[in-house]
Amino acid sequence: MPGVQLEDVVRAHGEALHSYATRLTNGDRFAAEDVVQETWVRAWRNLDRLTENQGSVRGWLLRVAHNIAVDQHRSRRARPTEVGLPDQGLEHAAVTPSSHEQVEAKIVVRAMLETLSPAHRATVLEVYYADRTAVSAAKALGVPAGTVKSRLHNALRTLRRTVGSEAVAA
Predict the structure, then answer these.
(1) Can you give the pLDDT at residue 74?
(2) pLDDT at 20 over 80
(3) What is the pTM of this model?
(4) Are residues 13 and 69 in the same domain?
(5) Could you give the residue ranges of the DSSP H alpha helices within the chain?
């Protein structure tokens, strides 16, 4: 490490490194600056390796910059694209109910489920609350899949009638 100073390396190779990083990032100035900055950090950490005796300093810097640019590209591809909310149209945005309203809705749903027979209630709970298919619900309940489908159909019809009569009563 004697004689090798990072300032000397930056002076000698900084412009070439920046040009190379700009090409690697397709002209994205900010991404190129990130690549260059990370390259200089790695150069500082490896000053003892930056001697002409161990190979070309410029070659080492360019290889490190290339690897960093490839890593950044892979990282960007792995992350989902961020999409901002538009300024307009927020009046149509979904509004989540308060915890009080959620509790109230759960009480109403539970009361409606209590109007079903135990077999129909169990079927609805397996399919909708346990998020099972008709086949896996049938296995869990020990009945054929066709029975689960017919029970589910009848239970939903009963619940619709219950909701309809509740709406009329209110």
Answers:
(1) 84
(2) yes
(3) 0.45
(4) yes
(5) 6-24, 29-45, 57-78, 99-114, 118-124, 134-141, 145-169
